[in-house]
C-alpha cells in the first residue's frame, strides 16, 4: 500500500506494512475492507467483540446476511449505493445478528476506495456498537411520549421561563387548555390577557413574587377562552436556583373545570339535602348500625327536648319509652340484620322533661352496593296532638252517646208512664163510669148496694195506683238525694236481718263477696231498698226442688260499680217476659204475694241515679240481677 | 131484640175483677149468651182451649181478650194461640178489649188475623150487644 500524502513521521520501529497492520489491528472500531458488493475481504480482530465471529469466518460473506431484514433496504439506499457511486455516505445505524443469535445496534461509516482511474473498486467500513445509546434514546422517547400522554390525560400543561436567555417555553397542553393554535405565539402578556378580570391581580401577584423572592404558589383561578368559555385552572409555580440565585421559574397549569363543576354540583346538592334535612318540620335522624345517633335535625331535637350534641352520645333506645323498647328493638333488629329494608311503628318517646310523646316513625336502611348497612334514616312524626284530638273526639262521642242514652231512657220512661196511665188509671176510671150508669139504672136496693161496693173497691185500687205512681215520680225527680259513704257489708247485714225468720225457715245459704268493692257513695235508703227488693225476690221465687242459695257480690267493671244478686230459684223465661220484668204490676209466678211493684221501684231508683239494671235468668235454674250503680266510662285516657 | 136469638158461649180473659163483674151483668141483662167463662190471665185460657181442641161444644164462640195482664198477657196469649189455632174444630171470634188508647196497640191488634176488632174500655151495653149479635150474621 502506498502512502501518497505526508501524514507525519512514522517511528523507526514500525516500518512498511507492519506499521499499518498495527494501526488497523489495534483500532477500537471494527475495520473492514469489502468488495464493491460489500462482501468481506478483510476484518480486523475487533470484529470478534462486535460480531462474535473470527475475522476468518467473515471473509467472503455477504454483510446483508447479518443485517436485520428491516434495515437492509435503508442501508442499501442510504449508504451502500452512495458509496458505490463514489460519495461518502453519513454513518448509518442498523441491527446486526451476532454469532450467538442476538441483534446488536451498530453504527457504520462507509468510505468508497477508488483505483487509480477513479473507479470504485473497494469499500472501507469502520463500525462501532451503539446498543447502549439506542436504548437510552428509546427510553427518552418513551418517557417523553408518556409524559405527553399523561399531561394530556390530566389536562396539565407546563411552562418554564429562563431568566438568563429571557425565553419562556410552553408545552403543547398549555395551548390546548387555552384553546390556541400551537403555531401562534404565546407570551406572558397574552397569558395574562386570558385571565378572568376578577382573578388577574392574584395571578400576576403570585408570578411576580415567585420571580422576585422564589416563593412558590398554588392557586385556583379562572380564564376566559377566545370562545368566551370560562375555565377553572389550578396554577402552580416554582423557582429554579443556580448558585443561590433565581435563574428561572417553572410551573404547571391544570384544567380543573370539570371537577370544579362536579364539586359545585355536589355542594349545591349537599346544601339542598342539608336544608331539607335540617329545616324539615318532621323529625329526622340517622342511626349507625349499632343504633347510635349520627345526625339529628332540629325538629327531632325540639320534639324530644335533647340538643343534638347530647343525642350524639346516645343510642336510639336511651330516650325511648321503656314499654316500647322491645317493639323498637325487634323492628330495628330486622333492619340492621338486613332482613327488612324499612319499617313503620307507632311508639312513644320520653321527652327530656319527662312527658310522653306519641310518634309515628318510619325507618329506611341505606346500604352500600355490597349490602353492608351504612346508616338508617328515621322519620319521626309527632302524633301526640292527633292522639289528644282523637281522645277528645272519643270522649265527646262517648258523652254524646251517653246523652242519647239518657234521652232514650227518658222516652222509654214516658212510654212506661203512658202505659201505667192507660192500664192502671184509665181502666178503673172506665169501670167507675160504667158503674155509675148501672147505679142510676139500678132497680133494686140490692143492686145499688152491690154497685156501690164495686165503686169503693175501684176507688181504693185507683188511689193505691196513684200513690205508687207518686212514689215513683218522687224517686225520678229526687236526683239530688244525699249520698253517703256506705259499706256494703253493713247494709246487707241489715237487709238480711229483716228476712232472718224466712231465711231460717227455708234454710237458705247466703254467700257474700264484697272484697273487690267494699263500699260506695250512694243514697243509703235507695241502696237498702234495692238490696231488699232483689233479696226478697230471690227468697220469694225459690224453687221447691232445691235448697235456696243466694249470692251477693260487688265488683268494678269499666270504672262502674256493680252489684250482683244471684239465686238458684224458679227462674224466668226471658224470651217470654224479658221486656216486662221491670214493669208495674207485673207478676210472673202464681201463688205468691207479688204485686209487681218491687222491681219497678228498684229500676226507677237505679236509673234516677244514672245506673242500670238488667237480668239474666233461665227457668228452673235461677235468676241473676246485675245492677250498675253509677255511670261507667267507656273510655279512659 | 130477637127472642129467637140463639145463645152462645163467651170466654172473657181479663184480670180486672170489677170489669169482669160489670161485663157479666151487662151480658146477662142482654140475655144473648147462655155460657160465660172467665180466665184472669192467658195461660188458663190457653190450657182450656187446648183441652177442648176437638170439642166444638165447649169451644167458645167469642173470646174477649184483655191486653195487660200478669203472667201471660194478651199478646202472648195470641202467640200461643196461633200455634194450635188451625187444629181447633171451631174458630172463635176474638175481640181485644183494653183501656189502652195507644195507637201502637190498636194497630198491632188489627194486624193479627185472628183478631176481629179492638174495643176500648169501658164497653157499653150497646157495644156488647152489637158485637155479639153482629157476629151471628
Summarize the structure.
Chain A is 43% helix and 26% strand. With 637 residues, chain A is of the alpha+beta class. Mean pLDDT of chain B is 83; it is low at 1-5.
Secondary structure topology:
The complex is a heterodimer of chains A (637) and B (137).
Chain A (H helix, E strand, L loop, with lengths): L15 H10 L4 E6 L4 E4 L3 H5 L3 H4 L10 H16 L7 E6 L5 E12 L5 E10 L1 H23 L2 E7 L4 E4 L1 H6 L10 H7 L2 H17 L3 E8 L5 E13 L2 E11 L1 H23 L3 E5 L5 E4 L1 H7 L3 H4 L13 H13 L4 E9 L5 E12 L5 E10 L1 H58 L3 H33 L6 E4 H11 L1 H7 L2 E5 L5 E4 L1 H17 L8 E9 L2 E8 L6 H4 L20 H11 L3 E7 L3 E7 L9
Parallel strand pairs in A: 17-19
Antiparallel strand pairs in A: 1-2, 1-5, 3-4, 4-5, 6-7, 6-10, 8-9, 9-10, 11-12, 11-15, 13-14, 14-15, 16-18, 19-20, 20-22, 21-22
Chain B lengths: L7 E6 L3 H14 L2 E7 L2 H10 L10 E5 L7 H11 L8 E6 L4 H8 L4 E6 L4 H10 L3
Parallel strand pairs in B: 1-2, 1-3, 3-4, 4-5
Organism (chain B): Leptospira fletcheri
Pfam families (chain B): Response_reg (PF00072)
Keywords (chain B): Phosphoprotein
Structure description:
The complex is a heterodimer of chains A (637) and B (137). In chain A, 43% of the residues lie in helices and 26% in strands. By secondary structure, chain A is of the alpha+beta class. Chain A folds into five domains: 16-133, 2-Layer Sandwich (Beta-Lactamase), CATH 3.30.450.20; 155-261, Beta-Lactamase (2-Layer Sandwich), CATH 3.30.450; 273-387, PAS domain (Beta-Lactamase), CATH 3.30.450.20; 398-474, Helix Hairpins; 480-629, 2-Layer Sandwich (Heat Shock Protein 90). Chain B has 137 residues and is of the alpha/beta class. Chain B has a single domain (9-133), classed as Rossmann fold (3-Layer(aba) Sandwich). In chain B, 39% of the residues lie in helices and 22% in strands. Chain B contains five helices and five strands, in the order βαβαβαβαβα. Chain B has helices at residues 17-30, 42-51, 74-84, 103-110, 125-134; strands at 8-13, 33-39, 62-66, 93-98, 115-120. Chain B has a five-stranded parallel β-sheet with strand order 2-1-3-4-5. In chain B, helix 3 links the parallel strand 3 and strand 4. Chain B is globular. Residues 1-5 of chain B have low confidence and may be disordered. Chains A and B meet through helix 13 and helix 14 of A and helix 1 of B.
